[in-house]
Amino acid sequence: MAIKDQLEAELIACITEHKANVYRLAYTYVKNQEDALDIVQDAIQKALSASGTLKNTTYIKSWFYRIVVNTALDFLRKHKKLTIIDDITLEAMTPGSEDTYANIDLEKALDELPTMYRSVVTLRYFEDLKIDEIADVLKENTSTIKTRLYHALKLLRIKLLDDSLVEVN
User: Coiled-coil segments, which residues (predicted)?
Assistant: First the structure.
C-alpha cells in the first residue's frame, strides 16, 4: 500500500507542477476554457484511477500528458458537431474591443492542420517537450514524430505564405 501512496504523491506533484501546461494543452484542442478545465479534471481522475498501471515513475509526465491528449481527443469526437467560442475570443471579435496582437494567422493555420500534426507541433513548441517525450505521449515511434513534425512545419509554412500572398493586393 505504501508504494501506491508514493505513486499517488508523485502523480499529484506532477499534476501540480504542470497544471498550467496541461490546461494549455487541453485548451489547444477545444479552444474553450470550461471544456479545457473539464478535460483536465477528467484526465486527473483517470490518472488517479489508473495510477497502479504506471510501471516506471520516470515517465509520469509523458504518461499524464498522454492521458490529457487522449481525453481531449475523446471529447472532440463526442462533441464533433458543436463549435463553441470562448468569452475571450468573443470579446476580441466584438466591435470596440481593444486591439490584440495575437498571431491569429498562426493560430488559424494550426487549427487547420490535421490532428496528428497539430498534436506534434503543440507538444513540441508550446509544451516544450522533446521528440522522445512526444513519442511517449502519442505512443508513436520517434522517427514518426520527427516526420510528422517536419510535415506539419512544411504545411504551416505553405499556409502562412499563401495567406500573406493573398493579402497583398
Answer: none
